[in-house]
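[job 0412] stage=complex_fold ligand=copper (II) ion status=START
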Amino acid sequence: MKSSAAVSENSARRSPLPVRIAVNGISNTTHRKRDAVFCGEYFRIVGTRGLNALGIVVAKLPVGTVTMHRKLEGSLVSLLFAGTAFVGAWWGAHTWLPSLASRHGAGIDSMLNYLLVTVGGLFVAGYVALAYFIWRGSRRDAIGPRFASLRTERLLSVALGLGMAVIAEGGVLAIGMPVWSEYFDAVPPADATVIEVTAQQFMWNVRYPGPDGVFGRTDPKLVDDNSNPLGLDRTDPAGKDDVVGLNDITVPFGRAVRVRLHSKDVIHSFFLPNFRVKQDAVPGMTPEVIFFPTRTGHFELACAELCGLAHYRMRGTFNVVPQKEFDEWLRKQ
Ligand SMILES: [Cu+2]
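[job 0412] stage=complex_fold status=DONE, emitting structure tokens
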């Protein structure tokens, strides 16, 4: 005895009239109707006006274009996502990081690039999997059985979670720890250029110890915002040759830089994007940053902590110049 599906198929072969083949118990016409409604609704839900109009056009395509509906729908959505990804990647690659000017910064860049590639790859893989399951699920008319057993689902969840953690965090630790120790645990070289930077709303006070290499005494009681913003004690012999400036830091090329940070009021953040240096300046503390410039030039100094209404004004210049030029500059101060 022939099955009903076989009978239906045989009669379809004989018939010169429009073919009605049952797939999974649903006729071709039902598929078409459902797809047209789905396609139109989809664009109406997610779409802008343009996509909405497109959805209506797609939904109204003549009967007999079920495959076309599906292909068009898939292509348009894929195009939208792929276009966004490509434009984003192109734009990101061109504006990703400011040009590098410090030794330890190369390690930080490697870590960021590693994270971008691996986590970006995982992100794309996750969305490809999601798209596949949406595509597969959207072709069904009823909720089917599980794709995998509960045990497999649990195992997969744990394995994928652990895998992602190891790839992302493990890589960061492997690449980042040596950079961390180079940046934070570095023993300052004896010939490092020592500078004291005192942040305040809304400027950077810069002080050099002068030829004697010793910073003079300061006293909060002597602070006067106009005449003595750092509270320098003029009676201290060590302070007589101290050089003070504002928003402009100059250092000689070929030597490490050692910046001692202070803040007079709120938390500021000493930020040299080209040097991959960022350190909070906290009232009552004296954090230090040590780094080694790898090229000469004039670079941006910014405050990376929203410290008040005129926060944007805390923009300075960090100049790396040849030793000879630096000596001359210091003599003129
Ligand atoms: Cu600030």
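Residues 199, 268, 303, 305, 307, 311, 314 surround copper (II) ion (CB under 6 Å).
[job 0412] exit 0
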